[in-house]
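User: My collaborator sent over this chain with a note saying "see what the structure looks like." That's all I know about it. Can you take a look?
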Amino acid sequence: MADNGIAKVQHYVPQFLLRQFGTGKKDQLHVFDKSTGRTFVTNAKNVASESRFYDFEVDEAKLTIEPALSKLESTAKPLLERIAKEDSVAGLTALERAQLCGFFAVQFTRTKNFRERYKSLSDMVLDRVREMSPSEEAFNEFAKGIPETNENHLKLITAESVISAPRDYGPLFNNKTWHVLTTTAKRPFLLGDNPITLQNATDMRPYGNLGLAVKGIEIYFPLTPTRALAMWCPTISEQLIKSGEQLKHLRSRAPELLKGLKDEERIARLAAAMTNGTPLAYEPVHIENFNSLQISNAERYVFADGENFELACRMLATHPHLSKGPRMRA
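Assistant: Without extra context I'll predict from the sequence alone. Here is the result:
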């Protein structure tokens, strides 16, 4: 323990979530290290953490956001466990949902990858300025006015992002439609060390389509090896419900038009889940997509309650750049 009872080893993925993916009394996790391709087994307390990860200094004063994070986790833990147990978000009160939105917003910003992405953005800006500068002397003169991006500066800047996250990002989680996803122990969900992942099927070129507020965004968060939470742009649910209504209409009025229609049963099941709030049982192709997001977005580690990391090995063999988490690109 650190001074004043504050933990020295600080997790950027909550231990309670890591334990959900552990096995046995000691919460043993199977871990895949993307940077080395190595697989090992360890306790939940030993991974997704660094010494004094949330400690920083301001004018020689030593500060930390670790206690605030622990308090937030204590609030979110029973709510997430209840969702996984009940297979539903319907029982959440408005206050409980808001508390989870704050938790998700903070988790989105508290990770190692978030810090590395901020650093890569700073490096990218400096590289671009260097390219545009008429001389090295001109660049050096410009660079004098930019604060040094050392470890303490990174901690301070990202701590500010974590502190403001519930205000800045919380409403963007709250205005999504939430759905419980299910799978079986034979085809489990994986957990990455950057667990909130984003996906969007909407083509918005030349602009990016990944952002919490972007139309069509899909947000995913693992709860257990067999349960996860999807937070979708309302347009997705609206379209699925509309498709289900059209399908139902055709079945009663013109069933001959449905001959040869692909995925009729899947569309009906999706629409029913959206309408009734029932859990959505994922098929193998969707489980693989979910897990591929956890793998590609992880900064370094992927966790499971078993040792099957075949998908991770296959992805890294095909795309070696996935050995580290996503970075800002010009």
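A starting point for your reply to your collaborator: The radius of gyration is 22 Å.
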